[in-house]
Amino acid sequence: MISPEQYLALRQGAALVDRSDRGRIRLTGKDRRDYLQGLLTNDIAALTPGTGCYACLLTAQGRMISDMYVVETGDAVLMDLERYVTPRVVAHLDQFVFSEDVVVSDVSDSIRQLGVFGPKSADVLRELDLSSEAFDFDRLNVLDHRTSPWRNTGEVVMVVRRDDLGETGFDLWISAAQGDALALAIVDAGATRVESDAAEIRRVETGRPVFGKDMTEDTIPLEAGIEDRAISRTKGCYVGQEVIIRVLDRGHGRVARRLVGLTCEGSSDVPAIGASIAAGDRVIGSVTSAVLSASLERPIALGYVHRDFVQPGTAVTIGAGIPAAVAALPFL
Fold first, then answer.
1. Is the same domain home to 94 and 191?
2. What are the C-alpha distances in Å from 295 to residues 178, 188, 203, 205, 281?
3. HSE-up (13 A, CA, CB side) for residue 77
4. Residue 81: which H helix or E strand, with range?
5. Are 293 and 331 in contact (CB under 8 A)?
6. Which has the closest alpha carbon to 211: 299, 115, 288?
7. Could you give the number of structural domains in the chain?
8. Taking phi first (over 0 means left), then psi (-120 to 50 degrees means alpha), and beta for anything else, what does residue 166 get?
C-alpha cells in the first residue's frame, strides 16, 4: 500500500523521485550528433545546445535495443536510459565508431539524477540556490535544459524539463558527490520524498511504456505507440528505418499488436505481470504493467493485444477471470 501523501505530492504538490534506476551515457567529440543521426530514430542532428529529444536505438529488423532521452549540452550529448541496458548500449555504440571523432562513456556512477515532479515542482526549484538568469522554468519545453553553479561547491547542476510521470517535472543532474546535498535541499524547499511504487502508479496512469517492462528487444516502436515522440519522418537514414517506413507507408501503420490500457471491473486484484488477456475463448495478448490506481480506485494495467481488439470499451478477461475493458491512454 502506497502512502497517500506521496501520491498527492505527485498530483497536487511536488515530489522528489530518486532516479537511481536510470543509466547515463556521455558522447563527446565534434562528430557526435552526425554519428548518432545514423543510429537513432529521431533527428539528433537538429539538436542545439540546451535542447533534447526522445529516441530509440533499433536493430536492422526494426526492433528495439533501447529507448532513451537525448540532450545536447554544447560540449557533449547525454543519454538517459534504463540502467540495466546501459552497458549493452555503450558496447553497441562503441562498435559503430570507426573514423568519427566520438568518445562514448558510461557516466552512470559519476552523475546523480534526481526528479522533481508535480504541479508545484517549478516552485520548489525556484527556492533552490540556482542562478535566476539561467532559468525560466515555466517556459522550458520538454527536454530543454539549463545549467547553473551549485552554491559555492564549484559544481554545476543541470535541470532538464521532463514529462514522463504525467506531471510537470524536472530532472536535476549533478555530480554523485553532491547528490545527497542536493536531495536534502530539494526536500527543504518543499518537496516530499516519493518511493518508486507511487511513481510507478503515476507512470501507468499516464500510459507511458518503460523499456524492460512494456517494451523489450522484441518490440517495434510502433507497437508501443511511441512513434509520435520517438521517430522523425523527415530525417535521413538510420538503422532499422526500412522496417519502420514499410509499416508506416505501405502498411498504413498496422502492426500485429498494440499496447493498450486495461481497466479492471468488479475486482480489487491487481493482475500479475505476464497474465494472459483473452476475448472470449481466444488469448489475444498479455499484461506488461499493472497497479492499483489511487485516482480511479481500481486496478489498471498496460498490455499488448491483437490489433483487432484495440478499440476502447472492448471487453476482455485477464488471467484466471478478472473482467476488464480496453481503455484509451492516458487513463488520466
1. yes
2. 35, 27, 13, 9, 32
3. 28
4. strand 77-82
5. yes
6. 288
7. 2
8. left
- The DSSP code sequence of 38-68 is TTBSS--TT--TTEEEEEEEE-TTS-EEEEE
What pLDDT, in 10s, does the model give residues 210-252? 999 999 999 999 999 999 999 999 998 999 999 999 998 877 7
Containing 6, the helix (H) or strand (E) segment is helix 4-12
Whether 24 and 170 map to the same domain: the answer is yes
- 498496422: which residue's cell? 254
**Is residue 134 over pLDDT 60?**
no
Q: Cα-flanking dihedrals φ and ψ of residue 148, to 5°?
A: -150, 145
Please spell the DSSP secondary structure of 155-175, one letter per residue: EEEEEEEE-TTSSSEEEEEEE
| Contact between 313 and 325 (Cβ < 8 Å) | yes
The SS3 assignment for 204 reads: helix
Task: Give the domain range for residue 287.
Answer: 256-332
What is residue 215's DSSP assignment? B
Q: What is the pLDDT of residues 255-292, one digit of tens each?
A: 999 999 999 988 889 999 999 999 999 999 999 999 99
Which residue has 564549484 as its cell numbers? Answer: 154
Whether the bond into 330 is cis, omega within 30 of 0 = yes
Which of 201, 233, 268 terminates a domain? The answer is 201
Note whether 175 and 155 are within 8 A (CB): yes
